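I hope you will forgive my troubling you with a question about protein structure. Here, with my thanks, is the record as I have it:
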Amino acid sequence: MKRSILSATKLATILATPVLALSACKPPASPEPQATPEPTATPTATPAATEKAPETEPAPLESTSTQPEAPAEQKFEPLQLPEVVATVNGQNITREQLQEVFTAALQGAGASVENLNPEQQLQGYTQLLNDLIMDKLVAEASVSEKISQADIDAEIEKIKGQFPDPSIFEQQLQQSGTTLDKLKENIANMLQQQRWMQSQVNAPEVTDSQAQSFYDSNPAEFEQPETVEASHILFMVDPNAPEDVVKAKQDAATKAAERASKGEDFNALAKELSEEPGADQSGGDLGYFAKDRMVPEFANAAFAQEINAVGQPVRSQFGWHVIKVTGKKDAGKVPFTDVKDQIRAYLQSTEQRQAVQKVLENLKASAKIETFLPTAG
């Protein structure tokens, strides 16, 4: 499915990634039901070694005319915030709390407050303050939810499992400026709020007929180009490599192609010989891909090959490729049966988002909220 249908923000939790999980210095995000995958017509796994590099625009022609110097970038003073920036049902949100998340947001964006004019600063503060208000409302509403130590420990183990080694987890924890106890506290808050939200959201199950209706109403979104399924063995060559190195890599690629043509298992050869990162795990498998997903030299060779044939080495900007095509799909509309489950998951996540938003709106409407941000003028 085209990405235009997939632009809606996925529901996420604080434990979506190790980095998010270890952001213990930030307030926990408003909890929402577990995200579901959005529909896509065809998986297109494309390793970096063959994926088309972004095109660059040519440099502008030099001019002999004298160009005026660019004006110095204007610097702005930080907005002065009151000690209390908001109250939520009598509870204060302080300047320090808002400033903390504002500073973290600037650092994450690689920006500096002195480059933001007063209006831009106020917009940022306003958005982040709204987030803090919703966090406080959800925390207040979910305070009665019980979370056991076993629940917290299980989540900690999930996070540790995302790291190849426990020492890396510890290192990441230290780099994030937090402690294990603080992480456990954040996880407990996250679980408490998440479970409360799940108890409030009752999005109806999406039916097959609803999925069919979506499919029928969006025919262009399920058109796919011609695709091929292929594996490759890559012998990497630096673009500036001398000719003898290029020739040596080509010879190695030719020998690999000969071995594959004589019946050796292609994926096993890729695990043994390919210099592409991750090939020792993937066996050089690229899955199905459209022609425009690959650099031209690779794509032209792959789409011209017969199924199960092993081609002669082809050179691209990455080096020499030995390609084996294992499947082809003609251009056309993806059958409904192939995408039904993905459509249902996408529609279900949309229903969940809307239900969560309604819960948050109701919380805010029933709360007494006062904000004290300054004006940009």
